[in-house]
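=== RUN LOG ===
request id: a7f3
mode: sequence -> structure
chains: 1
length: 277
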Amino acid sequence: MLKKFVKKYDILFVLLLFFFSSLAEYHEIFSLWEDQTVFFRHGMRSVFGMREETAFPLDQITLVTIDDRFFDEYGKYPLRRADLAKIILNLKALGAKVICVDLFLDLPDACGDDRLLAEAVEQSPVLLASRAVFDKDGRFEDIRYPIPLLRQNGNSGYVNLTSPSSSLTFLSRLRIWPEITAQEGGWPIAVQAVSAYLGTRPALKDNVLHIGSLSIPLDHFGDMYIDFSPIPEDYRFLYQYGGIPASEFLRLISGIGAAGKPETAMWVRQDCDYRGY
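=== RESULT ===
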């Protein structure tokens, strides 16, 4: 009987292939290859996909950009925290329901503007950026928060993405770490923003991320795959298409369009000095 089975080498080959394929899939060998094609897959979707279903929601989110163009007009560097406070208060006055500040403010301000910024944060629906710290083996160690004066006046969420591979770098996933969610501000800032916008709290149960009525299944490593919005032709970055320079909100001139609509989420990001936080 055994000899007959061995002679059917094709069956044995299929069984071995199934075993090693299952093992490789569990350890994400195939996924590593797949993630390297994200650029091409999103490029194909931008050309052939249904843009009304995947386009960036300009009527709901505005990117407030702090880039080289802004600093050319601003005339100095970096952005003073007193001016950042003005931007935040003006966004609040325009009806922003959530304001995400993607600037890592972990050191005191040399100009002494921290008190002004703390007051603006306290008066506004602001989420500040924190950073999750991992050791050399990729294990979570701690969360680095904004300075205490800002932290006690506003909520925060960590903004750094980590590549699940030590050999290849790709940022097409957002990992939800159960050991981090137990910490104060231990959710990614994107999850915090959606939760604040919906007026609820995020929860992780049975490897499913729950945000109000939304349920987002995660893979067996706790990863949520990022489905990037397509970028129109003639644009290289999303903020060039969906962003408004921060100077517009610093001086509040007329003609700012959708940013004045109520319940608009505002995202302040310093693109020229992002540094992967």
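=== NOTES ===
The radius of gyration is 23 Å.
Confidence is low (pLDDT under 50) at residues 253-262, 272-277.
=== END ===
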